[in-house]
Specification:
Elements (H helix, E strand, L loop, with lengths): L1 H29 L3 E3 L1 H24 L8 H22 L7 E3 L17 H16 L3 H29 L2 H4 L6 H7 L1
Antiparallel strand pairs: 1-2
């Protein structure tokens, strides 16, 4: 019962976010925004959808119960939700689940974006661990953490490339001591 309520709440939140993203997408494209990364977006949708399927199956099939350290995990989950809301609110109409860039748009450097370039990806990465661990779904936590790392290794460079081409992203987030250039040489 507790698991069903929890997972229904998280899924409802994600569906609401998808509705917001679709509305933001229409607005941005009406302003002249361009979409990038269409080829890998389907894999993001698949991974995120299968995460919930895997989680539900693992919890029900193995009769998982809430973790003994649930107060800590629930606190971490609530912290990620606050961070998620902060990141999405900071981007406002520019937030989307797709890579949609409005040419010459001002780069958002408020909220969590003052501290890190991709706070929402950090939050999602934490959720892929915290959400399954709340009900001891260890297989889901491990598998989807790995899949998320693979997806983000494709997604983040594609997003940054699009932002650098169409906005002042490069100036807003300069490379730290040429670290990116040195990593490319390796």
């Amino acid at each position: 019962m507790l698991f069903t309520f929890f997972i229904a709440l998280v899924i409802f939140q994600r569906v609401a976010e998808l509705c917001i993203a679709k509305k933001n997408e229409r607005w941005m494209k009406n302003q002249g925004a361009l979409e990038f990364g269409e080829g890998h977006y389907i894999f993001i949708v698949i991974v995120h959808s299968l995460f919930f399927v895997s989680y539900i199956i693992e919890v029900f099939h193995y009769d998982k119960i809430i973790s003994p350290i649930w107060p800590i995990l629930l606190s971490l989950f609530l912290l990620t939700q606050a961070g998620r809301f902060w990141a999405l609110a900071s981007l406002g109409r520019y937030w989307n689940t797709k890579i949609i860039v409005l040419p010459k748009a001002e780069i958002v450097k408020k909220g969590p974006y003052r501290f890190i370039k991709h706070p929402n990806y950090t939050i999602v990465s934490a959720e892929f661990i915290i959400i399954p661990l709340l009900f001891q779904a260890y297989i889901t936590a491990m598998l989807f953490t790995i899949l998320n790392v693979i997806i983000l290794a494709i997604r983040i460079p594609a997003e940054e490339k699009a932002l650098k081409e169409l906005t002042s992203y490069k100036e807003a987030f300069p490379e730290v001591l040429g670290l990116s250039k040195r990593l490319k040489k390796v």
